[in-house]
Amino acid sequence: MEMYSTQKAVLEVEYFGEVGTGLGPTLEFYTLLSHELQKVGLGMWRSGSSFDKPSMEIDVDGQLGVKPQESASFSASGGDKHIIHVPLGLFPRPWPPNADTSDGSQFSKVIGYYRLLGRVMAKALQDGRLLDLPLSVAFYKLLLGQELDLHDISSFDVELGTTLQELQALVCRKQYLESTGNYNPEELHFRGTSIGDLCLDFSLPGYPEYILKPGNENVDISSLGDYISLVVDATVGTGVMRQLEAFRSGFNQVFDISTLQIFSPNELDYLLCGRRELWKAELLVDHIKFDHGYTSKSPAIVHLLEIMGEFTHEQQRAFCQFVTGAPRLPPGGLAVLKPKLTIVRKHSSSMNSTANNGSGPSESADDDLPSVMTCANYLKLPPYSSKIMHKLNIFIN
């Protein structure tokens, strides 16, 4: 990617040993690379709540490798277990300031991955390609040059953010009582427990190797304010600063990242990752082309549209990736998909089907699976004799 990041020409990808070229394989490449950059062992992202992890778990030999059929992918039944799944979106994992940056160290690899991510994201935006990266709103804010504070933490880690805000309220209460001369440390409790009994130390919650302050001092009510400030800085400031700098340096190799500041975080996510809601059942027939043996009234097409309208969100993603090479649709959805999604009749592989050349259903086709040409968004659908849901589950998986 570094080789092509400075080129203005549109990047297209083809795979050794595969016939297809063009849009479909290129979208598949960006999708596979997106999934590789979300793998647990890379040490790039926070994984769930800070209070769920007693210690850091990282595969020190974690490597990237984008190969069709071998990389992590999503299915209709759920996500890949090797990919980080966070409902509020991805946010950089904090690394301590003294993290080893020498060549070959884990943190040096993390820096390299963020530089790659910057190039990939910029090139995808430049070429109008989609990524499958569920980034958090807070991460987009950082990309746009906005500063984060205590209240932003809840947008990617609800438990940590809520806890810090409750602790900050105690600090404010303490300051108020001191100003009125009514301060009594025994009256200040966190959820019914004194601060001393919480046994907090100056390490980052969820990352015990990240030492916020030297020494073995525990946190008490008098040092609680300092503790909160250090946790916030490690979480959204110093702890992620070098990763963001690496991302920006990679991005700027393609075009100036400051040009993104005209967008809001939600607008940038829409441009980069497309629609999260892929389609509405009642609009499907208006945005799909039926050809070569099929019309919108053909029984197989009627059954397919009914099933597509019943898909869950994950099934929609799997179907979209099977047909187009990417699990998301561009801004505007099916209506602006180019080439337009086209569904044609696939003749049965059975010798007995040669006599059936109409557009009606065929029992001999029930043993066949659909096939696609992702470079043309072209679905070849056998004329199934009934609404066969399990067939669709097989081919999209």
What does this structure look like?
The protein is an alpha/beta fold. It is 34% helix and 6% strand. Helix 5 runs parallel beside helix 6. The longest helix has 23 residues. 37% of the residues are buried. This is E3 ubiquitin-protein ligase UPL3. Keywords: Transferase, Ubl conjugation pathway. Pfam families: HECT.
| CATH topology description of the largest domain | Hect, E3 ligase catalytic domain fold
Strand order of the largest sheet: 5-6-8-7
The termini sit apart by: 29 Å
Query: Can you tell me the overall shape?
Result: elongated
Number of strands: 8
The total tally of domains equals 3
**Portion of residues in helices?**
25-40%
CATH superfamily of the largest domain: Hect, E3 ligase catalytic domains
Question: What structural class do the secondary elements suggest?
Answer: alpha/beta
- Beta-strand content estimate: 5-15%
Instruction: Give unreliable regions as ranges.
Output: 54-62, 66-79, 351-357
Quick synopsis:
Residues 348-367 are annotated as: Disordered. This protein is an alpha/beta fold and 397 residues long.
Give short descriptive properties of this protein.
single chain; 397 residues; alpha/beta; Hect, E3 ligase catalytic domain fold; Hect, E3 ligase catalytic fold; 3 domains; 4-stranded mixed sheet; two-stranded antiparallel sheet; elongated; HECTD1/TRIP12-like; HECT_dom
List the helices and strands and how they pair.
Layout (H helix, E strand, L loop, with lengths): L22 H14 L69 H22 L9 H7 L14 H23 L8 E2 L2 E2 L8 E2 L2 E5 L12 H13 L1 H15 L12 H9 L15 E3 L7 H12 L2 H12 L17 E4 L25 E3 L4 E4 L7 H8 L1
